[in-house]
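Good morning C.,

I know you're traveling, so I'll keep this short. The sequence:
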Amino acid sequence: MGYFVSNIHRKRSLPPLAALPAFEAAARHQSFSRAAEELHLTHGAISRAVAQIEERLGVDLFVRRNRRVWLTPAGERLLKATVLALDGLDSAVEEIHRHDGTSPILSVSCEPSLAMRWLMPRLGAFRDANPDLNIDLRPAGGPVDLLAEGCDVAIRRADFGIAEDYDVTRLWPEFAGPVCDPQCWKTILACDLSNARWLHSRTRPDAWEVWKRASGCEANPASEQYFDHFFFALQAAVNRLGTAIGPLPLVYDDLAVGRLIAPHGMAPTGYDYVLITLDRPGRDPRILRFFDWLMGEAKGMEDGMLPSV
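The tokens, ready to paste straight into the viewer:
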């Protein structure tokens, strides 16, 4: 009887895999410093990663001279193999991410203020209508890398450039106007914005100027107060600390129950809220369900848009 020798556990003669991205970046830039900048690592970390590979292989991958580096023939050969391997992994991950429509979890990146003041209060209704789909909500703003961040979709205010390889679907236009507590408004002399304290956010410092241009208002504040985040400026308005620029949908619920009023109404800001995806929403049934629900909520908000008070 012969013997079967399994090679399942055969040890591969591979270099440290975690070091390969550092090597690839250093080889592409022909610079350890530029590789470190790209990967947000130190120069020493890149140097150690390359040294680990060289020690495992027993050959030099770079010629080092006068703070510059050039690939050796062995380095050139390893670079070609590394690029093929990393590109293959990247393509596989993207394909898995794009077409995993059977997952019971949908990861949603959403602007923090929108998430806290509009989306989260409505997710219970979405869960009731879609008990088999859980929303993994990740508050984040600005540019997004869906694959790197492991997100299926992102909801953003489209006030920045979005990479062309994403599919961008318009959700609703933004309207905004000054909002404050009803009692606070009554204490403002002659109900004139020029006699009000204007509340600002450092994350959206031009909110008042955008509204003034859209509305034609030429008022200037009696006093001002600044907050680190837009959410805090809106909460300060609820708490009678002054008057803030309140965009729909961030203040829609407050207006609906009378916590805030919009004495000058709402004006279009020229920006839209959008859904950012890797493919058209219809390619993934989970995303399509979420998108259809979002559009339904948006229509309800539009139909119930409150007049100025």
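Safe travels,
E.
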